């Protein structure tokens, strides 16, 4: 039996986005290096102000990784995250040459992450403000720890 898959596409969870937003659809087999090279060239060139990373199923963790890499490279990005479920329809056909087939509907988790150079609504559920230097765990402390205990 060999499956044939179909995904019922859900609409963009961010209503009111401009038409020029870059949408990166992250798949299970996507290479992070290729995704990030393309996205960073587009948003770093100054032409784009927003990018949406979308992934479902086994690609959810890869989608989050892409967003975190982008935030680290372009420090002051606002983030809006939406979680939802997508319906995946798998059609299993008989390998014996018969006409019998079995259809399975599965719901898989999906994530969409909007990163924006422009401010977003902080009251929107899933909003994260840009990280400041004080919020970063690798920031240098203001005073030496050894001088505190001497």
Automatic annotation (TrEMBL):
It is found in: Nucleus. The keyword Protease does not apply. GO terms for molecular function: RNA binding. Pfam families: Alba. GO terms for biological process: tRNA 5'-leader removal. Gene3D superfamilies: Alba-like domain (3.30.110.20). The keyword Nucleus applies. GO terms for cellular component: nucleus; ribonuclease MRP complex. Transmembrane segments: none annotated. PANTHER family: RIBONUCLEASE P PROTEIN SUBUNIT P25 (PTHR13516:SF5), RIBONUCLEASE P SUBUNIT P25 (PTHR13516). Belongs to the histone-like Alba family. This is Ribonuclease P and MRP subunit p25, b. It comes from Cyclopterus lumpus. The lineage of its organism: Eukaryota, Metazoa, Chordata, Craniata, Vertebrata.
């Amino acid at each position: 039996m060999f499956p044939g898959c179909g995904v019922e596409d859900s609409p963009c969870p961010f209503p009111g986005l401009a038409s020029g937003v870059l949408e990166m659809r992250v798949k299970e087999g996507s290479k992070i290096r290729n995704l990030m090279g393309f996205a960073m060239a587009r948003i770093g060139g100054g032409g784009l102000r927003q990018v949406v990373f979308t992934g479902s199923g086994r690609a959810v963790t890869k989608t989050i990784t892409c967003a975190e890499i982008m935030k680290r490279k372009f420090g002051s990005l606002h983030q809006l995250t939406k979680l939802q479920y997508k319906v995946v329809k798998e059609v299993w056909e008989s390998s014996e040459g018969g006409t019998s087939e079995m259809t399975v509907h599965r719901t898989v988790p999906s994530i969409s992450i909007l990163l924006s150079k422009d401010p977003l609504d902080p009251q929107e559920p899933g909003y994260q403000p840009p990280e400041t230097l004080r919020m970063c765990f690798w920031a240098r402390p203001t005073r030496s720890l050894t001088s505190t205990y001497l």
